[in-house]
Amino acid sequence: MNIIKTADYNEMSRKAANIIAAQMILKPNSVLGLATGSSPIGTYQ
Fold first, then answer.
1. In this structure, is the dihedral angle defined by the CA atoms of residues 9, 11, 17 and 20, taken in order, positive or negative?
2. How confident is the model at residue 12, as a pLDDT?
3. How far apart are CA 5 and CA 3, in angstroms?
4. Among 19, 23, 38, 41, which is 20 to 30 Å from 9 by CA?
């Protein structure tokens, strides 16, 4: 597990979205288990 520190929620959301997008590009058949609820809304936007 990697821990990535960010300055705020918006930066964390951008980094998380980039990690998810990179995984989908590198391995399109990946199986992703993504969170629900209000916590990841910034990432999914």
1. negative
2. 96
3. 6
4. 23
Question: What is the DSSP code (8-state) at residue 37?
Answer: S
Q: Write down the pTM of the prediction.
A: 0.81
Buried b (16+ CB within 10 A) or exposed e, 12-32: bbeebeeebeeeeeeeeeeee
Q: How many CB atoms lie within 10 A of CB 5?
A: 7
For residues 25 and 12, give the distance between their C-alpha atoms in angstroms, rounded to a whole number.
20
**CA distance linking residue 6 with residue 15, whole number of Å:** 9
Exposure on the CB side of residue 14, measured as CA atoms within 13 A: 6
